[in-house]
Amino acid sequence: MTSTYPLLDSVALPADLRKLNREQLETLAAELRAFILHSVAQTGGHLASNLGAVELTIALHYVFNTPDDRLVWDVGHQSYPHKIITGRREAMAGLRKAGGIAGFPKRDESPYDTFGTGHSSTSISAALGMAVAAKLAGLEHRSVAIIGDGAMTAGMAFEALNNAGDIDANLLVILNDNDMSISPNVGALNNYLARLMSGRFYAAARRAGEKVLGKVPPMLELARRTEEHVKGMVTPGTLFEEFGFNYIGPIDGHDLDVLVDTLTNIRRLRGPQFLHIVTRKGKGYAPAEDNPCLYHGVSRFEPDTGIVEKIAAKPTYTQVFGDWLCDMAATEPRLIGITPAMREGSGLVRFSEEYPDRYFDVGIAEQHALTFAAGLACDGYKPVVAIYSTFLQRAYDQLIHDIALQKLPVVLAIDRAGLVGADGPTHAGSFDLSYLRCIPNLTLMTPSDENECRQMLYTAMTLDGPAAVRYPRGTGPGAAIEATMHALPVGKGILRRTGRRVALLAFGSMVAPALAAATRLDASVADMRFVKPLDEELLHQLAQTHELLVTLEENAVMGGAGSAVIECLLRLGLPTRVVQMGLPDIFIDHGDHATMLKNCGLDADGIEAMVHQHLPE
Ligand SMILES: Cc1ncc(C[n+]2csc(CCOP(=O)(O)OP(=O)(O)O)c2C)c(N)n1
Ligand SMILES: CC(=O)[C@@H](O)[C@H](O)COP(=O)(O)O
Ligand SMILES: [Mg+2]
């Protein structure tokens, strides 16, 4: 039987790719694109960015001597073509599944994965580190950071450019500009890139790009441009030239000839180089080109029709938040909704349409998002920052210094708290309870169901200081959601079941498995609701009437809600035995969410087994 991918079959590693002649690369690109499409249709994953990076990946591995030359993929959600031609084609069937390969570059997966990514805008810093390491070691390695226009909106990318442009290291930054983040890209930089493409800059830049490839010997032309640049003669300079880079482009990132020629020339240059390429997100697959947002990260789908598998029958917590935000905005004109580039994932699409003047997508700028909210709160507005737990890690100082210290009434709607499944440890929200509960002035809530989530968000809005509501990815137990909103008593949990000997003190998503286990154990169950302030009265009562307390949370055990309980018992001088259940002190690999929880003992069976272990009949 003839293979569907005859040329791709011959490329197990980049060394095989480098044996191909230039004419074969187009065919390889077509096969690689088709393979990705059919593979991701089976597994789900980040489709659109990968389709857009096919030619770039081939050209990079063709021209550069990987893995000695270092490729650092920003975010890493576009690294599937790279994975496939670096020995992991067969493994794509297990992409993002338990025991399978990760959806992002991972150093212990392959020597070609030079740097683990998942969070955005780290590539220039990491590649610069590698470039400087090569220089210090007297090696001729090249380091390449491949960063998208969305990832380029982050401050961290500019911190790195600022440093790199002033260091004589062999760093190449490739800006993969597809005019999209997950949703359409935003901000002044995005406007600038658009002008660079279409206005007077583009004409000049394109001429320069053509010259690199045209009749003037490319090396001479690049040397001339570099010299002009050094002498400050290049006018008008692009922003990147002002940062000290030799700017080349924009060029067509799907034209393999242009890519290979340009990269070949650049590889011979020394010092900081900046190549601007233009690509199309979803390239080659009409449904993804038409709706790159839908196919950014997609569930399994039917490749012929583009029909995507529907998973959730119940509303997700994200939807509960999105609906609450619109309802709240209708009654609270001072409400402002803020997202750091996660409009769809955070449930802000309807709000952005209904309240465009009160909606701010600030780009991939978590730090700025929080301090921007702080400023709004100073002047009487009620900002709600919708943010994934994992990305809030980026904005810790802003939360402490700019918000909590000044007791500003900013609401944090923290999505993806706990394990997130297929994205794995880069995206897990495992730490927020630990890193938030130690911040003075902050109220911290963990809803156990959809309605509690809505009421907690409302409660957060009524407080005169910062408040956070953290809820998991996906659906909850399916509670009926009340249209009305009322404030919950702050710092009060509720006893959901009265039993004997053992009390399960459950936070958020752990209330449902605690209730399931409790019937079999005849245990008491408290929905603790607040991690801060903790319900000391309830705790006191349960400690005095039970032999064993078990704390349950979908957060690291270390420093989490269970630790808060133990600190409180110590303070109250209550010697009741406590067992803490939560996420262990390891990074948990990607997989199916329910199975991951089960493996941590965080399901009804695991809770039951733990109680039997500590409280024999
Ligand atoms: C710190 C951080 N914030 C948010 C995200 C979520 N995120 C992943 S990809 C992405 C858009 C990236 O856009 P771009 O770099 O242009 O790549 P493209 O998707 O267009 O290929 C966002 C916002 C992230 N990974 N890291
Ligand atoms: C790569 C990235 O950071 C996002 O695309 C992330 O994978 C989205 O996760 P959700 O699917 O949970 O929105
Ligand atoms: Mg982009």
UniProtKB/TrEMBL annotation:
Mg(2+) binds at D149, N178. One of its GO terms (cellular component) is cytosol. Residues 315-479 form the Transketolase-like pyrimidine-binding domain. It is an enzyme of class 2 (transferase). The keyword Metal-binding applies. The keyword Cell cycle does not apply. Its EC number is 2.2.1.7. GO terms for molecular function: 1-deoxy-D-xylulose-5-phosphate synthase activity; magnesium ion binding; thiamine pyrophosphate binding. Binds 1 thiamine pyrophosphate per subunit. Thiamine diphosphate binds at H77, G118, H119, S120, G150, A151, N178, Y285, E366. PROSITE patterns: TRANSKETOLASE_1, TRANSKETOLASE_2. It holds the Pfam family DXP_synthase_N. Keywords: Isoprene biosynthesis, Magnesium, Metal-binding, Thiamine biosynthesis, Thiamine pyrophosphate, Transferase. Homodimer. Catalyzes the acyloin condensation reaction between C atoms 2 and 3 of pyruvate and glyceraldehyde 3-phosphate to yield 1-deoxy-D-xylulose-5-phosphate (DXP). This is 1-deoxy-D-xylulose-5-phosphate synthase.
